[in-house]
Design goal:
By secondary structure, the chain is mostly helical. It has helices at about 10-40, 50, 55-90, 95-110, 115-125, 130-155, 160-165, 170-200, 215-225, 230-260. Helix 3 (about 55-90) runs antiparallel to helix 4 and helix 8 packs antiparallel against helix 10. The radius of gyration is 28 Å and the shape is flat. The protein starts with 11 loop residues before the first helix and ends in a 24-residue tail after the last helix.
Length: about 280
């Protein structure tokens, strides 16, 4: 019943149209995939000689090292972005006006600045090594975006929860850590994971500052292959790994969200059976 509160149940004609649309969309997608495969076959991208280099131990080691560097940059940027986002969100929610203005200025500036510009500025102007420059750029951008996610999640909690906590004599820090944040996590979590997926994909910008990440490893392999269109086999190898990592993060987000939505089952307390009280003189039972 709760699934049909906001819309009507589709009738037989609507279900038939939905099936027709699904079949048509599936045929279009299958046609696009077939067309792409035809182009790859027509240009000889599945020939054995173009895939034989990936059997070499040196190329496999280069790809694994690049993947490890990508995960290292992502791990550092993810942790620092979450920390920076929490600090900036606390500043934006502060009752002190100078602190709130300073946090707002940082959030708006770094959120509007392109990630590549920040990475290049840190790498070239400040003369920072590739890994710290990449992590710093990703942290500043994603941290500012996550700050808005955290702030929106806290503000999404019902106002009555905050007022009830203050009426019990709790301090603002206690209200934030014990009441607002735990309840806001459910609203924040999908957006947090989505932003971390963006950070994972943006680690590929590291190849522009010579950081030896996964995409840079693929570029080095492609430039040393001596046949036409060497980048296509490399892309066909690298792309599924990027897609798999992003899907893994999305699956983790859905898994955590389902656990958060589960209702906690409690058992009723044992209550003693009520006994009749003593008789009061002059009062009829």
């Amino acid at each position: 019943m709760t699934d049909t509160v906001l819309y009507d149940v589709p009738g037989p004609r609507a279900r038939s149209r939905h099936r027709l649309y699904g079949v048509a969309a599936s045929l279009v997608i299958a046609g696009l995939i077939a067309w792409v495969c035809y182009l790859l076959v027509d240009t000889g991208q599945f020939e054995a000689e173009k895939w034989r280099p990936f059997e070499y131990e040196g190329i496999q080691r280069l790809l694994l090292e690049g993947l490890g560097n990508t995960l290292k940059a992502f791990g550092l940027a993810a942790v620092l972005s979450l920390a920076l986002g929490a600090v900036l969100a606390a500043g934006r929610l502060s009752e002190h006006r100078p602190l709130r203005w300073a946090a707002t200025l940082c959030v708006e500036f770094f959120r509007a600045m392109p990630v590549l510009v920040m990475i290049f500025f840190i790498f070239v102007a400040l003369k920072v090594q590739p890994l710290p420059a990449l992590v710093a750029g990703l942290t500043l951008y994603n941290g500012s975006v996550l700050a808005e996610v955290f702030r929106a999640g806290v503000l999404a909690v019902d106002r009555g929860q905050r007022e009830a906590a203050y009426s019990l004599g709790m301090l603002k820090s206690q209200v934030m850590t014990h009441v607002l944040v735990p309840q806001g996590v459910r609203a924040m979590l999908p957006a947090i994971i989505s932003q971390l997926v963006v950070a994972l994909k943006d680690t590929s910008l590291g190849f522009l500052i010579t950081y030896e990440e996964f995409l840079q490893a693929g570029k080095l392999i492609a430039t040393n292959l001596n046949y036409d269109l060497p980048f296509i086999p490399v892309v066909l190898v690298i792309s599924p790994i990027y897609i798999g990592m992003c899907m893994l993060l999305s699956w983790f987000a859905n898994w955590v969200a389902k656990r958060e939505r589960r209702s906690v089952k409690t058992r009723g307390a044992q209550v003693a059976k009520a006994e009749p009280g003593p008789m009061v003189p002059g009062v009829k039972p």
